[in-house]
From TrEMBL:
Name used for this protein in its record: Integrase catalytic domain-containing protein
Domain Integrase catalytic span(s) in chain numbering: 1-59
Species for this entry: Taxus chinensis
Biological processes per GO annotation: DNA integration
Source taxon at top rank: Eukaryota
InterPro entries: Integrase_cat-core (IPR001584), Retrovirus_Pol_polyprotein (IPR050951), RNaseH-like_sf (IPR012337), RNaseH_sf (IPR036397)
Gene Ontology MF term list: nucleic acid binding
Length: 59
């Protein structure tokens, strides 16, 4: 699968840290955040997480 081109995350502090930003920059990953106070905007991140969990379980 390789390195992702984009990561969509919510605005939790662990997803907006300087360390994660630098990590993503180092690998050429775009880090995007969902909208504040708009739960529907987090649906894309949650959907991706569901797909990842399914793939990991199959391994």
């Amino acid at each position: 699968f390789g390195v992702p081109h984009k990561i969509v995350a919510d605005n939790a502090s662990n997803f907006s840290s300087h360390e994660l930003t630098e990590f993503c920059y180092g690998f050429g990953i775009t880090l995007a955040h969902s909208s504040d106070y708009y739960p529907q905007g987090n649906g894309q991140a949650e959907s991706s997480n569901k797909n990842l969990v399914t793939i990991i379980r199959k391994l």
